[in-house]
Amino acid sequence: MIKNSKEKYGSIAIALHWFMAILIIGQLALGFYMVDLPSGLQKIELIGWHKEIGVCILLLVTLRLAWRMRNISPLPPKHTPYWQQLAATGVHYLLYAVIFALPLTGWLLSSAAGHPVSFFGFFVLPGLISPNKHLAFLFFTAHQWLAFGLMGLLVVHVGAVFYHYVFYKHNILRRIFP
Q: Is residue 4 within 8 Å of 74, Cβ to Cβ?
């Protein structure tokens, strides 16, 4: 099943979900690791990888949003309170917004710092703004806070799955597995 149904996500949505989940968790770990490294070749290499994976995530989230807009989403489990349905929808929209905003702020940060953003050597993204130290600091700070926000949203997202499983016996996780 390629497309989503009322009961389950389709193979495209599932593949995008799990591939992005792996990339995003890796990005968060890499980002927090490399920030504390001393300046040097290793840090520069890791920042390069971080940027390239960030561009990949930006492309994937754009594709995922387009796919989601053209497909239905599975219905919530029966007897799910309305407030939980609203909360789930809100968290999903916030996840998309933050996942989209993080690579954009990273790109803006690189532009403001005067550093190019390459996509695995295939092409270099154009600078979005002229180099500016103050804006670089602003976008660095926004990028960090968005990363913290994403971690919080991921905890809520995964926590809700386990909450439904433990308290309601809803195995909603099976809907996003192949």
A: yes
